[in-house]
Amino acid sequence: RLYVSGILGNNAQNKGDMTAQTNELLARVGRTLTAAGFSWGDVVDGIVYITDISKFDAMNAGYRTVFTKDFPARATVGTGLVGADGLVEIMFVASK
Question: Is pLDDT above 80 for 62?
Answer without folding.
Answer: yes
